[in-house]
Amino acid sequence: MTTPPVRVERRVGQRFPYLLPLSLRQISPAVEGVGFTQDLSSRGVFFLTDAQLVEGAEIEITLRMPSEITLGESMPVRCRGRVLRVSKPMPGSSTPPLAETKSGVAVRLEKYDYLSEVSESSATFARVSALHSQALPARTR
After folding, report:
1. Which of 79, 83, 89, 93 has its CA at a distance of 20 to 30 angstroms from the CA of residue 73?
2. Number of helices and strands (H, E) in the chain?
3. What angle do CA 57, 63, 65 make, to 5 degrees?
């Protein structure tokens, strides 16, 4: 009987399992899209998306960073980093149904810009509604 190989944990920051909407922009080749996080730390993020991203590319991600990571208040943040890995979807795997159609992307975060609550950059969050296949019911008064 063989023993499984020992894997060395290379992550520095504690990871938090968050399902948060995000918008993204790969710098070159230019790609824009939306996605949602699977886990997040102060140094990196793993998210799911339909966007066709390239390993090694510079990327900009905008999301609402939770208080556990900011060590203060939850706030909108624009992060810059590098795509470390892109995992293609695996239909029929044990992942949640929505994840079967998305690529998994690991990004090492290198820089943060904290955005004001009324920043025009926050408007990119509206695009996240494209992730939802059903329209939300209209509010009545």
Report:
1. 83
2. 1, 6
3. 115
Range of the domain at 29: 21-117
pTM of the full structure: 0.70
In angstroms, the Cα distances linking 27 to 4, 57, 77, 105, 121 are 39, 7, 17, 15, 16
Within-domain flag for 46: yes
CA distances from 73 to 65, 77, 93, 97, 125 (A): 9, 12, 36, 32, 18
Name the DSSP letter for residue 1: -
Q: Which two tokens stand for residue 134?
A: 């059903």
Q: Does residue 1 sit within a domain?
A: no
Paired tokens of 139:
């509010």
The phi, psi pair for 120, rounded to 5°, reads -60, -25
- Between 74 and 82, name the one with better pLDDT: 82
* 107 falls within a domain: yes
Between residues 19 and 97, which one has the greater pLDDT? 19
CATH assignment at residue 83: 2.40.10
